[in-house]
Every structure is written in structure tokens, then in C-alpha cells.
Amino acid sequence: GLPAALPALPLELTVLYNSLLFTAGASDSAIKGEAEGIRQGLLRVLEACGACGQDLGTEELWQKVLQEVTVEELQAPLHRLGALQAAWWLAAGRLRSDLGRAHCSERQNKLLSLIKAWRVPPEGASLPLVQSAKDLKEILCTAAAFLQGLQELEAGNFPTALSLLQEAAGGFCSKKILAQIYTCLGCCAQRMGKPQTALQNLKRALQVDFQCLPALSHAAAVYHELGETDAELQALTLLYQALGKNPPAAASSSPYFLMRTELLVHTPVLTSLLHHHHPSEVKYLLAQRCLQDGRVADAVEHYLDFLSLLQEGLQQQVPLDGSSALPRIPEVFLEAASALEQAGRHQDAITVCEEVISRTTDLIPRVLQVEERLEQPECSSPGAELTGGLLSQKKESLCCLAWRAAGYLHQGWAWAKLGESKEAVTQFSRCLSDLLRLQLHGSGAKPTENFQAEVEVLQKIRLLSLIGRGTQFLELGRHKEALLDFQHSLQISPGDPAAASYLVQTLWKLNRKQEAAAQWQKLSQSSPGEDGQQRGQGRPLPLYLVSCLEQAMFPHSEPLARSIQDYLGTAAQDTSS
């Protein structure tokens, strides 16, 4: 409440500087809000000089102080307050707003330039400081370079981002922040198409601070891109083990500072890059990659571990809203069933599929209509929210139908492997019966773009189920029924090599040799590039269907091919004679 006096202001401003540093340093979270103490200090300075600035904003207040206050004794205290103001501005995202207003070719940030150009005034020995202005400048430079590097990384300006992040890595910060900077450098290099440089930076991050687990996660992703499966699985295993342990105390800086880089750098892009996976997400990634790479025994072990985590209430621990690495839970069950089938554990696979079937039964309408075109209203129109909700509901119903049908499909193949052809036919028939619920409406009976992916999966399941049932009809000697299934398969997917090959075999068994030979010739003349339908026309199949696709492939039959060739040769001789 005392009036401001010039002789006392250096001490007053120094106490304010120390107090603000203690306040910032006492917090473990990032600085937020405005530094009201700085504003009050500046108003005190103006008051002592016979001026006022109550109605001015922060920037205008600083301009007025710097223009009107020329007292030599106040220069060093004001410089220190200015440095704290820069810290608050950095933490408040001022750097990002400046960049957002700047032209792309003029992105050199004013605040960063000012910090670099700042000449720190000599410190007076009579007034002790809890953190020197020189150290504060180094921290500000590091934070500003880090923040601008993140901004450029988010904008896709990778060379500029790389340069700024490298500058930040050479700055003044704790081991924890240095590891984060190296992780960001690794991500930047990865996006630039430089995987080896990315790995070098990610390894540096782990060398600096092994608790920087996002670096390990990103390294696994780089190894995946390079096709180095052993290294990827090793990284994921280490990540899973590390996540299961109690983390030691965070790596700290030495010496300790009240104002630290971590208090100034908190942006959505950094949060995204440093996202920590839940252990169950990593366990799923291990299972998925093992299954994709054909390591069936390991895949089964990881999937069963994951399913046991589900029993422990995983849904409450991991967000299943798309932000997680996990797919929808029924898909995980179906992938587990696929792994169990490939491992020869057919009864276990049947049990897992039964869980999917029972859980989705009540979620599918009796008839599921998909229109060829469904116009979506503008977002601002009254019907937009309702239409969006209907689309979402219909998409969910299509997914549930696919999961349930896939459950029957897997059960059909499992019973077939067990030699139970009648039971296999029953399950394949249930799958096909389920798929009759889907009705396509429109001139070309093609799905709207909103549901194209879901309908393509359902059509692939229908194809695989028809082929599966046809093979079991052959096993039971019911050749005419098998023929109908293979013909229907080719209507769904013209030119499918598996269906066409089984059709040839069935016609031959029915002694319709001329038709079989004609189909065989047509199949032989088709080029390998025409096999687009077999792999979903470039759209990747869900992982849980890959094993079914492989089981549906026609086993090469040399005797059949030789018999048809002999028949064609005899027919040609008869024609020439």
C-alpha cells in the first residue's frame, strides 16, 4: 500500500522477480494464465515516474515503460521482468499465435528473435537472485526453439522443424526434455522419409532418459515401416515390460532451476507425439504383428493374455473411442480365433467365436437396408444431426453383422478342419442366412460411399462362406449342391480363382467334362493381375479374415490338370480326324 518510490524500486522488482520464480517453480505443471504480478510491477514503475497505465494492455504497458523509464538502476530489474514476461507468453502459446498470423515465408518468430538478441545486463552483487537472468535466457531460447520446431513439424515444414529442434537439443534443459526433443527429431525424420536418422534420434532419446517410452513406441513403428519384424517385436516387448514396472524418479536437470523448459512447453502436438500407450494396447500390437508375420504360437499366447486383460475390466482402463491403438473388441476376438485355428486349436477357436456371436445377436435388425445414395444435409441444417446419427447407427449395425457372420465363417472352417463336414455346412449356412439380412437398394445395387468398406467386407464373407460350404458339400459327395455354391461365388466375385478352380473340379466330378475343360481353359488364360477380387481390389482385408481367405484357396491338383489336358488333347484329335 506504500506509494512507489524510485530508490526502493530495484529491491521491490527483484523481490517480485524472485517471488514469481518461486511460484512457477513450486508447480509441477505448466505455467498458465497471465502473470498479474508483472503487470502490477510495471504499474508501480510508472507510478514512481509520475505516469499511469491502468487502461493499457500488457504489450502497450511494456511499450510505455520501455519508452518512458530511463533510470539506469531500473534497467537490470526491468530486463529480468521482461524475461519472465517472455516465459509467460511462451507458456500461453503466444509463439503459436504469432506464427499463425505470419506469412509462410516470414515465419521467423519475433519473440524467439528478441530472446536471442537480448543482451543480459550485468547482475548487481548486492541483490541476490534465485535464478540468474543469464540462465533464464538460455532456458527461454531452448523453449522457444522447441516450441517453434513443434509448430513447423505440425505444419509439415519438416526441414525447418528439424533445424529448430536440433537447435533446441543443443540448448539448456533437463534430461527429460532433451529426450523429448530427440523423440520429436525422430518423428520429424520419419516423416521426411529418413528412417535410419529417425532411429538414431530415438535411440539418443532412450540413452538420455530410458523412461521416455514414447521413443520406444516410435522406434517400433519405424522398424515396422522398414519391415524389420524381429526388431519391431523386440521394441514392443521392451515397451510392454517397461510399462508394467513402477517408473523410477524422472530424470532431472543439474543444477535445479525454478524456471524450467518443461513449464513452458505444452502443446497438443507434443502431447500427441508423447502419447503413452496402455500396456494392453502394446500387448495387442504384439499379438497382431505376430499373427501378421505368421508367428502363430506367439500370436496365440499374446491374444490369450489380452483376452484375460479384458476379463479384468480393460474397458474401464483404455479409451475405446478411436484414440486407442485397439480395434473394436469383437475384431480382437475374431483375430484370436484366427490365431487359434492356425495353431490347430479348433475347439478353442469355436468357443471364442461363440462369444462374438452371442454378444452381437441382439444388436442386428432383422432387415438391414443400405441405399445406393443417401444425401447428407449441410452441417448447419436441422436434419444434419439426425442424419449423422442414422448413418452412425446403420454403420454400427453393418459392423455387428460382419462380426457375427465372420464368427460363423470361422466356426465353419474350424469344424471342417476337425473333419466334421456336416457341422461345417451348418455353420456356413448360418453365416449365409445372416447375410440375407443385408439388402442393397438402388439402380446398380451398389452401396453408398458411406458404407462401401463395410459392405465389401460382408460380400467377401459371403464369398468365403459359399466356397467353404461348397468344399464341404464335395467332401459329403453332394456335388450338385457344391456346384450351385461355386456358381453363386462367381456371380458375387467374377473371375475369383478359388471359386473358378473349385467349379472346374466339381464339373469334372459330375462328368460334365466339356464344361469343365472350357472353364479350365478360361481360368488358365486369365493373367495373375486379374486376381484383384481375391484380395479385395486393393482395399486391405480385416486381419481376422486373412486365414479364411487362405483356407478358401484351391489346392493345386496336378492329376486334375493332367486329366483335363488329356481330355482336350483327345478332343482335338477327334476333331481333326
From TrEMBL:
Superkingdom, natural source: Eukaryota
Cellular component terms per the entry's GO annotation: Fanconi anaemia nuclear complex
Bilayer-crossing regions: none
Record-linked SUPFAM superfamilies: TPR-like
Xref: InterPro entries: FANCG, TPR-like_helical_dom_sf, TPR_rpt
Ranges of the TPR repeats in the UniProt entry: 463-496
Organism listed in the record: Edolisoma coerulescens
Listed Gene3D superfamilies: Tetratricopeptide repeat domain
Keywords assigned by UniProt, alphabetized: TPR repeat
Key word Heme present: no
Magnesium found in the keyword field: no
Example of a GO biological process term: interstrand cross-link repair
Name of protein: FANCG protein
